[in-house]
Amino acid sequence: MIEAVLAQASIFKKIVEALKELISETNIDFSEAGISLQAMDSSHIALCNLLLRDDGFKSYRCDRALTLGVNLNSLSKLLKCAGNDDEMRIFANDDSGADQLNFSFESANSERVSEFSLKLMDIDADSVDIPDMDYQAIIDMSSSEFSRIIRDLSSVGEAVSIDATKQGVKFSSAGDAGKGSILLKHQKSVDGDSALATSIEINEPVSHSLALKFLSSFAKAAPLTDRVSIHMTEDVPVMFEFKISEIGHIRFYLAPQIDDEE
Amino acid sequence: MATSTSASKAPGIEAVVVRKKTQTFLDFGQKQLTAEPCKQCGMAYQRGRTDDEHLHKKFHRAWQRRQDKALLWHDDCESIVCANGSVQIVDAHSPQRIVKRALAILNLANEHLGACKVDVLGERKVFLFIDKGRVCGCILAERIDKARRLVPGLSECQGGFIRVVCGISRIWVVPGERRRGVGVQMVRAVAMRFVYGCPVGLDQLAFTQPTDDGRALAERVFGRRDFLVYVEE
Residues in domain Proliferating cell nuclear antigen PCNA N-terminal (chain A) (predicted)? Predict the structure, then answer.
């Protein structure tokens, strides 16, 4: 038996919206520690990793660890039936082998309860261990600023190069029609007045070229949180982390583009 | 020189960007990075390589068409109506044509299961799950008289022989139709109709050595981990 109650359905809705563009089908792992998900896009260029800790839920119960395969497009359609302020309950019964995942949404005044269930799928995906590592540069910036930069540069080119130095971070892109760049300067204090400030923790300057196609699907996670942190080290995948308040995070890993050898 | 190479290629971002970039892939040790067979059609190809993906797509489509044709079923024979389809029973008394078709589907399943081919039905019966004119799964059931209990979670037997009535020699569900209860409903149909007019209890049903999926199904059907198994003759 699995049962997880989330005070606000909107968080889950936004998570699914953030993921469904990148991946269409995924296994969701339910364990005692919470709900997690790891999926790679079909081309093996990007990977996302979602974690929702058990203590972030209003109540959480998982008797036996279970992996359930879902189609994210169907899930997203189903979640459209939930109000943003509804309380959401996810439950599955594994006594007779879970073949569906159930959702119930209760409105804030408890007057309306709706219940939906989602058919499960048999998805063959191997989960991988992502090594923890120390990154050379960590950029902490506003998530809305991030999605705006990605949107702006998407109209210029297909790839963005992110250059981080002690002074600031520069996003630049070039295409047939021209080129553009956006520079964000490092500001000493992040907390307090300015939610738009950018802070950079850096050991050595790092530069990466990344496909905008993937970044624009990562940017779909921006509504979840105010901040995004970009973790970079030369020659390893870039990690984008969106912290979801008090419950967990979504992390995206993206393989960079490298210079052609010829 | 950079411009001359880019001019020979199709116009793209390379026209302005001086150096051409190559997209790298993530390698966290996942299996699929190497050429893994497609779970349905079995063709091995590398995920993410456009030419490989394209080739696979073409092959998969052709395979799908063949498979769809092979799985069509419009014959009517003795059947039991289930929640989302019906289970039809084919035995030696069915018309020859239907027996032949059933064996063809059974051998398709054998190919997937890696089991040997079945040429003659004999005293055995085939149970086919049909939904919307297509076969979703099949069972080959036979008359046996003894089976032994499995040690839970292992592939060993324990205890002595137990008298049973019916053995499920093959069970297979079409990959795209899994996780919707087809297997369970087929086993129930076997229990109900294997012996005409006399339902067989679940404690008189046995499986041959199961695959991992088969074990999961058997545990679900019998509600116990030490279900009965037998060795096929």
Answer: 1-127
ipTM of the complex: 0.71
In chain B, whose CA is at the least distance from the CA of A47?
A: B26
Q: What is this structure's pTM?
A: 0.64
Residue of A nearest to B11 (CA): A176
Per this entry, what is the length of chain B?
Answer: 233
Provide the strand spans (E) within chain A: 2-6, 25-31, 34-40, 46-53, 59-62, 66-71, 87-92, 100-106, 113-119, 137-142, 159-164, 168-174, 179-185, 199-202, 206-211, 227-232, 238-244, 248-254, 257-259
Record: contact B23-A45, CB cut-off 8 A: yes
Q: Residue A101's domain is classified under what CATH number?
A: 3.10.150.10
Are A62 and A20 contained in the same domain?
yes
Are A141 and A250 in the same domain? yes
Report pLDDT digits (tens) over B145-171: 999 998 887 878 888 899 999 999 999
Contact in structure between A136 and A203 (CB atoms under 8 Å): yes
How many domains, chain A?
2
Contact A158 B13 (CB under 8 A): yes
Fold category of B74-230 in CATH: Aminopeptidase (3.40.630)
Distance between CA atoms of A206 and B199, rounded to whole angstroms? 72
A159 is in which domain, residue-wise?
137-254
Judged by CB atoms closer than 8 Å, whether chains meet at A159 and B13 is answered as yes
